[in-house]
Write a structure and sequence with these properties.
This protein has about 220 residues and is α/β, with parallel strands linked by helices. It contains 7 helices and 8 strands, in the order βαβββααβαβααββα. Helix 4 crosses helix 5.
Length: about 220
């Protein structure tokens, strides 16, 4: 991928995947004509994911690079690997579909930080899955309430205002924890309506590409 130019393009790449490491394979690896992947072990089952197809396996993929910034540096481009048909989904259509996924990204942001999914309390896989499902349910609960809040748009406002979803999550969680109180501790919709944000079109921020793993709660406390 590093050999491809930093500009918008739509191309097809063909390469070989091999699971063996014979001399001929090593020559192909060194020449850049093939890639090595872990295959099934001969004497024992590998713990890591393995390649289930024959070796060598010739793979053809479609690579689409779209511009999402000014185009002055590599971070202004996004590279997408897809199997979608080029005629049914041309480059411009792929660009529109990529734009639609922004809502998914913001949803994950609320799940990880506002709802605390970035830290797990459990250590076993089945209990971690249980935490994830619980956070999904709570996210839907908060979003269902926030979506019903109507923000009054004054004619003299410079910006269009929307709900601050991070604050909305905190308000909904506080209400959920104290929902048995009589009378209720707060009017949820009124509190959410007090926390709004302006929509500023064409704002940009430098992309912070830094992958992070989830942290176990027990390790974090220790």
């Amino acid at each position: 991928m590093h050999d491809l130019p930093y500009e918008e393009f739509d191309t097809t790449i063909t390469f070989e995947l091999r699971t063996t490491q014979r001399n001929i394979d090593k020559e192909e690896f060194a020449a850049g004509n093939a890639k090595w992947v872990a295959g099934h072990g001969k004497y024992r089952v590998r713990k890591i994911a393995t390649w289930d197809f024959e070796s060598p396996f010739r793979m053809t993929i479609r690579v689409v690079r779209i511009r999402i910034g000014d185009g002055e540096n590599p971070q202004d481009y996004e590279t997408i690997i897809t199997s979608l048909d080029r005629f049914q989904f041309p480059l411009q259509k792929i660009k529109e579909l990529y734009h639609f996924r922004w809502g998914i990204e913001t949803s994950f942001r609320e799940l990880k930080y506002a709802l605390g999914l970035v830290n797990f309390h459990a250590r076993k896989d089945k209990f971690i899955k249980q935490e994830i499902y619980a956070h999904f349910l709570m996210y839907n609960y908060c979003e269902r309430i926030a979506m019903n809040v109507v923000i009054q748009q004054d004619a003299g406002n410079k910006w269009l205002y929307v709900v601050n979803h991070t604050m909305a999550v905190h308000i909904c969680l506080d209400f959920f924890r104290h929902r048995s109180h009589e009378p209720p501790p707060l009017n949820v919709e009124d509190e959410i309506r007090k926390n709004i944000l302006p929509v500023r079109d064409n704002r940009r921020d430098r992309r912070k590409i830094k992958p992070k793993d989830a942290v176990c709660f027990l390790y974090r406390v220790a």
